[in-house]
Design a protein that fits this description.
The complex is a heterodimer of chains A (114) and B (112). Chain A has 114 residues and is an all-beta fold. Chain A contains no helices and 11 strands. The chains are: A mainly beta (114), B mainly beta (112).
């Protein structure tokens, strides 16, 4: 398996533009997580899905952020409109049920909003 | 609110030295995991501990879960430059399926 695949690796966009981040989880993993990482706040959970259904979106900063998982092999995180304070590294991770096996993270998308 | 506090935040040591990183919480966790993250990559799982007092060894790394399952430590013996990275602990609670809470992180630099 190629692991969790995220695209793009880097994204630079202007304030006000729409940004879409993409994730392909590991086949067979029932859980998918979106995290944001910054130096100030560390790794923050934004939202997670179980079997394509959103379970907890309490970490989504505001209505400008939305996430979808239309099928077991694809998820998107969208920011519209983007703002400079959204600049961060966004990670997608997937896992099997339970906590023992841990998460497999993607390589992340570094977003810069200017 | 960060439920898992790690210390120290930053650590710079020379090759061959020993070090310990701590992960503390006021909450009880059913499992505790340690991850290492290298620049430009996502965190990678090192170990999972589930029993209070459990000790696991991974080559030069020793992980311990506190008796009360509220804290954990990571000890590295004879550190090498390849150990450089961000170390993150993550706690899971019973009844929350796969959801983990990540710690604040310890950034380790090992120099020659």
């Amino acid at each position: 398996d190629a692991g969790v695949i995220q695209s793009p690796r880097h994204e630079v966009t202007e304030m006000g533009q729409e940004v879409t981040l993409r994730c392909k989880p590991i086949s067979g993993h029932d859980y998918l997580f979106w995290y944001r990482q910054t130096m100030m706040r560390g790794l923050e959970l934004l939202i997670y899905f179980n079997n394509n259904v959103p379970i907890d979106d309490s970490g989504m900063p505001e209505d400008r952020f939305s996430a979808k998982m239309p099928n077991a092999s694809f998820s998107t995180l969208k920011i519209q409109p983007s703002e400079p304070r959204d600049s961060a590294v966004y990670f997608c991770a997937s896992s099997l049920p339970g906590q023992g096996d841990g998460y497999t993270f993607g390589s992340g998308t570094r977003l810069t909003v200017v | 609110t960060q439920l898992l506090e790690q210390s120290p935040q930053f650590l710079s040591i020379q090759e061959g030295e020993n070090l310990t990183v701590y992960c503390n919480s006021s909450s009880v966790f059913s499992s505790l995991q340690w991850y290492r993250q290298e620049p430009g990559e996502g965190p990678v799982l090192l170990v999972t501990v589930v029993t209070g007092g459990e000790v696991k060894k991974l080559k030069r790394l020793t992980f311990q879960f506190g008796d009360a399952r509220k804290d954990s430590s990571l000890h590295i013996t004879a550190a090498q430059p390849g150990d450089t990275g961000l170390y993150l602990c993550a706690g899971g609670k019973a009844g929350t399926a796969s959801k983990l809470t990540f710690g604040t992180g310890t950034r380790l630099q090992v120099t020659l």
